[in-house]
Structures are given as C-alpha cells and as structure tokens.
Amino acid sequence: THNLPPGLEYLNQLDQIIIHQQVELLEAILGTESSSKYEIKNPLGQRVYFAVEENGCFDRKLCSPLRAFTIRIADNAGREVIRVIRPLRCNSCCFPCFLQELEVQSPPGTIAGYVVQNWDPFLPKFTIQNQSKEDVLKIIGPCATCGCFEDVDFEVKALNEMTTIGKISKYWSGFVNNVFTNTANFGIQVPVDLDVRIKAVMIGACFLIDLMFFENSLDGL
Q1: Cα torsion at 167, 207, 186, 28 (round to 10°)?
Q2: Which residues contact 36 (CB under 8 A, 6 or more apart)?
Q3: Does residue 107 have a cis bond before it (omega within 30 degrees)?
Q4: Using the 8-state DSSP alphabet, how is residue 9 labeled?
Q5: Using CA atoms, how far apart are residues 66 and 121, in angstroms rounded to an integer?
Q6: What's the pLDDT band for 92 if we cut at 50, 70, 90?
C-alpha cells in the first residue's frame, strides 16, 4: 500500500462505494442551483471523502448537464486526494468526434486515468482508461435511463464487453426526493482487487453519468 497515491489507501479495501449528493434546504425550497456537494461513503454509510464541484453560475445555468467543471475530492482530514476535470464538450451522437472525456487526477496534478465516451446509436457507452490512455474497462448503460420507480444500472464490463465485473447504479430514492429535491444516490460495485487508481476513475465516471443522464430528469440527481 505504500505505493498507492496518498489518500487512496482506503479504496484498497472497498468493493462498493456510495455517492450521495447533499442538497441545502434553501436550494430545495427555491429551486436555485448552487455548486454540487457530495458525500462518498463505504457500504456501512461512513463518510470516506467529501466532494465539491467548482464552476461558475453561468456554466450551471446556461450549459447545465454539458457544463465544464472541476470536482475536488477531499478525505476526512480535509486533504484533497482526487481531482476530476471535465471540459465543455458535446453530448450528442450527431458529433461523434467531440464526445465526452473526463480526466481524473490522484494526487492532484498526477493523472490516474480517463473516462471516454464511445459513440453508439443506441446505448450509453464509455471506456475507462489508465494514466497511459490504455483501455482498461467498459461501461455500458441501458437503452432507457429514466428508471422511474426502479434503479438504473450501468454495467462495468471487461474490454470484450462479454464479462460483467461490476456496475454503477442510480438508486431510486422515492418520488418526493427525486422530483422536488433532485438529490442523488449512486452505488459503485467493482472487484475489491481493482487498482485503486481505476476505482478513483470510476468515481469520476459516476459524476459524468449523473450529469449526462439524470440531472434534468424526473429521476434526476
């Protein structure tokens, strides 16, 4: 474990990660949108990390799910251990040459890996890459991501797309929560022996999937 990026040692023990969005009361009542904040927890519900999205009000209002952002993820001691960077890119099959790409750093300033959207006319597809931009895993979502009254699963697969090794799930949290507070609950399930850097990249993939498919939906995050 002494070779792991500082702050990622704890991920070495986990095969399940929970991500919960924090929504302030004033934001929920007035419908205003402030910078997103998240708690990242272990399966017992204990907070491991805290994440804050950084961008401008202009980006959130005008670009919304397409917006560029930087998400800083800190441990319980307040030390930034992961940084997720998303540039402004397209979100349409009409522009397959400029699809989504997200960079994950750990520690900040050092590349841990990438999440790259793949063009597909029917299914949401992404490739998880390591720091050398070598393909490691695939993520394949369902045809329909509305997921009314049920969880929505994005399967984590081997590169041959035949073997499923985990999933990223958007948990259904009830009609009132989803429609009126727009809160998010996600779960990431991966093999416990997966490289911790790739686990960090999976957290970044979860944020990207949230913004692309759930933020402005009734089942939204």
Answers
A1: -160
A2: 21, 52, 53, 71
A3: yes
A4: G
A5: 19
A6: low
Length of the chain: 221
Ramachandran category for residue 214: left, alpha or beta (phi over 0 → left; psi -120 to 50 → alpha): alpha
pTM > 0.90: no
Closest listed residue to residue 77, CA positions, set 3, 5, 6: 6
> Domain 11-217 belongs to what architecture?
Alpha-Beta Barrel (3.20)
3-state class of 172 per DSSP? coil
Task: Output the six-digit token pair for 87.
Answer: 């540039």
Q: For the stretch 89-107, what's the b/e string if a residue is b when 16 or more beta carbons lie within 10 angstroms of its beta carbon?
A: eeeeeeeeeebbbbbbbbe
SS3 120: coil
Q: Map out the domains of the chain as residue ranges.
A: 11-217
Please check whether residue 83 is in contact with residue 63, taking contact to mean a CB–CB distance below 8 angstroms: no
